[in-house]
Amino acid sequence: MELYRAPVQNGAVLTIEEVGLEQLDVIRELNRAIFDEERIINTFDRDDLMILLARVNGVPVGFKIGYRENSRTFYSAKGGVLPEYRRQGIARQLLYVMMERARQKGYRRFAYDTFPNRHPGMAVLGLTEGFRVTRADYNTFYRDYRLRLEKDL
Ligand SMILES: CC(C)(COP(=O)(O)OP(=O)(O)OC[C@H]1O[C@@H](n2cnc3c(N)ncnc32)[C@H](O)[C@@H]1OP(=O)(O)O)[C@@H](O)C(=O)NCCC(=O)NCCS
């Protein structure tokens, strides 16, 4: 289902759609290109699983996956944009669309974790969007510091 459509740079058109697990191959390819890993998220067996796919002129360029954390909070588990399509506002638009869908579903809070040393973009984006840091810890698997950011919907 298409949720967003608007022009970005050079007259190209950005669309954001909600897709189902049948589109996992497209997401897997993007995940590989962006994160250089096979694992997307640990499990897709989640309540209110939401998979957003961003395309520019029909070409898949980014994704964002979220799900119910608890009755109040929607959790964005992973997302990214291909390097050659960055800094055009695509991640920001994916965030807006996911937050709005979560709000429509009755969630009151939106949360995600991020590793600012590895990927500074999502921490900066969240802070500029009014998110607050609600937890900071050291992740032994990734051997790096992790921030949790949250915002009321
Ligand atoms: C982080 C990421 C999703 C941002 O995607 P994007 O489409 O380029 O982001 P946007 O264009 O919407 O950026 C919106 C704002 O976020 C901030 N931002 C984005 N990338 C940034 C970076 N590398 N460094 C600092 N700030 C950044 C800026 O404030 C930017 O606004 P501006 O371009 O007007 O300055 C993308 O760089 C990416 O996929 N990175 C690798 C994977 C990743 O980090 N995933 C998130 C893990 S939690």
UniProtKB/TrEMBL annotation:
Keyword Aminoacyl-tRNA synthetase: no
Domain N-acetyltransferase: 14-153
CDD domains: NAT_SF
Stored InterPro entries: Acyl_CoA_acyltransferase (IPR016181), GNAT_dom (IPR000182)
Keywords, in A-Z order: Transferase
UniProt name for this protein: GCN5-related N-acetyltransferase
GO molecular function: acyltransferase activity, transferring groups other than amino-acyl groups
Family matches, as Pfam families: Acetyltransf_1
